[in-house]
Design brief:
The two termini are 33 Å apart. A hairpin with a 2-residue loop joins strand 6 and strand 7. The strands form three sheets. This protein has an eight-stranded parallel β-sheet. Strands 6-7 form a two-stranded antiparallel ribbon. Strands 10-11 form a two-stranded antiparallel sheet. With 310 residues, the protein is of the alpha/beta class. Helix 4 packs parallel to helix 6 (85-109) and helix 4 runs parallel beside helix 13. The chain is built from 13 helices and twelve strands. The protein has one domain (8-309): Homocysteine-binding-like domain (TIM Barrel, Alpha-Beta Barrel), CATH 3.20.20.330.
């Protein structure tokens, strides 16, 4: 029997599904120091209840899909802190459990809020490198090395009961191809793929999006595709181009428009580059977006404003 697309019920009952916003921004607001190679995954080790609290705040703000704190959680990254593969897998599974716990709490508060989904974050190899290369895609690895890197995290996320996978912030065509092939090892898995871009028609590594879309079209487990962690003012043109290439639902969750400095592990504002997520909803919907949320430096307030536009 074919696996049911977990997004179907959401998208049948709403013009778009509301994703959550930045996790790290809210953790920093709660006193976490994330100037670390593990970024928000560090909090899985040190204070996981804060992660649950952030997920809960986003559900209360109107998010219908929570993205787990596993973006930078990998056995390779945790091994630098002395953790075994089993300990790393347990932390990745915990990232799902925390989101599910927040969902359960919120559904007790508002039983009519469902369905609510948990998307297991699968960040790129570049995030593990912690040098900003998820915005460049300038790392080269064999396909089997990419698969070996991503496999244990995907297994842990699925074992813990993630409803779907968010293969996100992907800048590299070689990595995207390896991930799509890896999914076939887990026939029950469904995923969205979202990219960082050089411009509205090319991945960060320069690969034309038409090549990316044609490759992913051969993978029925990919149920949505789009863009994330790019500036607001670059989103609509890219979505329109993707809409011309694919009939899949599109996903968009940009950052605030600030620029990330991989050396200082900080975001920097440039004039009036920050904008409103809600102010872009109409044009995103026209361009085929069906999953809309925020990435770095966005807040529950931004998500609440999106909910009002739903």
């Amino acid at each position: 029997m074919p696996q049911i697309n977990p997004l179907t019920a959401l998208l049948e009952s709403h013009p778009f599904a509301v994703l959550d916003g930045a996790l790290a921004t809210e953790l920093e607001a709660r006193g976490c120091n994330l100037a670390d190679n593990l970024w928000s995954a560090k909090v899985l080790m040190e204070n996981p209840q804060l992660i649950r609290d952030v997920h809960l705040d986003y559900f209360r703000a109107g998010a219908q899909i929570a993205i787990t704190a596993s973006y930078q959680a990998t056995p390779l990254g945790f091994s630098a802190r002395g953790l075994t593969e089993a300990q790393s897998a347990a932390l990745i599974e915990q990232s799902v459990a925390l989101a599910k716990e927040a969902r359960e709490i919120y559904l007790r508060e508002d039983p009519a809020a469902g369905p609510l989904l948990v998307a297991g974050s699968v960040g790129p190899y570049g995030a593990y490198l912690a040098d900003g290369s998820e915005y460049r895609g300038d790392y080269v690895r064999p396909a089997e090395e990419f698969k070996a890197f991503h496999r244990p995290r995907i297994e842990a996320l699925l074992n813990a009961g993630a409803d779907l996978l968010a293969c996100e912030t992907l800048p590299s065509f070689a990595e995207i191809t390896a991930l799509a092939d890896l999914l076939t090892e887990y026939p029950q898995a469904r995923a969205w793929f979202s990219f960082t871009l050089r411009d509205d028609q090319h991945l960060s590594d320069g690969t034309p999006l038409v090549q990316v879309v044609n490759t992913l079209a051969a993978c029925p487990q990919v149920i949505a595709l789009g863009i994330n962690c790019i500036a607001l003012n670059k989103t609509t043109a890219a979505l329109k181009h993707l809409q011309s290439l694919s009939a899949l639902p599109l996903v968009v969750y940009p950052n605030s428009g600030e620029t990330y400095d991989a050396v200082s592990k900080a975001w920097h504002t440039h004039g009036d580059s920050c904008g409103s997520l809600a102010g872009h909803v109409s044009q995103w919907l026209e361009a085929g977006a069906k999953l809309i949320g925020g990435c770095c430096r966005t807040t529950p307030e931004d998500i609440a404003a999106l909910r009002e536009r739903r």
